[in-house]
Amino acid sequence: MTNSLSRRSLLQGTAVAISAALSRSVLGAAQRVRMHDLSLPAAASGTIWIGGDLQVSRIGLGTAEFSRLKDRPSDLATIRAVLRRAYDLGVNFIDTSDAYGVAERLIHDAFSPYPSDLIIATKGGKTIGDVPGVFPLDGRPEHLRTACEASLKRLGLEQIPLYYLHQPDPKVPLEDSMGELGKLQKEGKIRHIGVSNVNAEQLATARSVVMVAAVQNQYNILTRESDAILATCEREHMVFVPYSPLGGRRTKALNAEDARLAGLQALAGKRHVALAEVVLAWLLARSPLMLPIPGTTRVDHVESDVAAAQVRLTKQEMEQIG
Fold first, then answer.
1. Which of 30, 26, 39 is nearest to 117 (CA)?
2. What is the pLDDT of residues 64-117, one digit of tens each?
3. How is residue 290 annotated by DSSP?
4. How far apart are CA 194 and CA 291, in angstroms?
């Protein structure tokens, strides 16, 4: 009787394992089909692998601007429309943070149950302060654990595909912060680890503790202080995620009196496209490991950003931009 039960249990376990493997295979196949569906505008940007096993389109969506909105029904409807439109256009990488107010909950509400190919990245290490736009740092291991587990609940995920330390906390040894993320990864709560707002020394320290899959620093046509970081990413096969890739739509960045922007504006006019499209196209051409995450609260901006995937800059044009 015992042997019969053992054989039965073994067969049942094997059947479950085979079923699970087939399910993963079917989901993986569905993801691959969608990722290479050329009818989706974002597909023109190509794809990139995060950590070697997460394939995403090379134009993502940032959600920092969601923090400006309130919990009003009209605002919630607007954000849902932005998120859904981005995905419908082929964007399958959404970047957020626990410091962006209601952003994580809105992502859950817009997509749950999640499409199999949707990759969500979030961050911990900043807190929402009393002053609007000011986010105090907290890189203590206990805070990062609490923040990560809270993000899991808000997003409705069992595992966060990519989790960043939002910014090193000078009051906490970086090794301690990264070590806690490493523990969360071993527990299965994080799939891949990233770092944000780091310099070269901090990146090296982080990589001495854990395997870093992605680096997110501010980077755009006028802000290139992270060129050395980008070079490291290229050498070590880490994805570079430039935040504020357009320099902020409402600031002077895209309207500044700058020779590089003048050239870009002329090029945009020649191509009959928006300046923002050329700026994003420059980032895509700048490095194959670049994954820009333009953010917006407007559907028309999402459509314009994704259209940048169709703008292919020549080698000569890249040299002229500088």
1. 30
2. 988 877 777 788 899 999 999 999 999 999 999 999 988 999 999 999 999 999
3. B
4. 13
**Which pair of tokens denotes residue 307?**
């259209």
In sequence order, what E strands does 115-231 have?
A: 119-124, 160-165, 190-196, 212-218
pLDDT digits (tens, 9 = 90+) for 58-73: 999 999 988 877 777 7
The encoded tokens of residue 201 equal 């020394």
Distance linking the first and last C-alpha atoms of the chain: 77
| SS3 label, residue 28 | helix
Q: Strand, helix or coil at 106? A: helix
Residue 271 contacts residue 244 (beta carbons within 8 Å): no
Cis, bond preceding 113 (omega within 30 deg of 0): yes
Q: Quote the CA–CA distance of 94 and 123 in Å, as a whole number.
A: 12
- Of the residues 87, 100, 164, 243, which is catalytic? 100
Spatial CA neighbour of 286 closest among 242, 243, 254, 251: 242
195, 216 in Cβ contact below 8 A? yes
Give the span between the Cα atoms of 282 and 114, in whole angstroms: 31
Higher pLDDT, 294 or 25: 294
State the greatest distance between any 2 C-alpha atoms of the chain, in Å, as a whole number: 84
Contacts of 313 (CB under 8 A, 6+ apart): 267, 278, 281, 282, 285, 321
100 is catalytic: yes
Q: Which domains does the chain carry?
A: 43-321 (3.20.20.100)
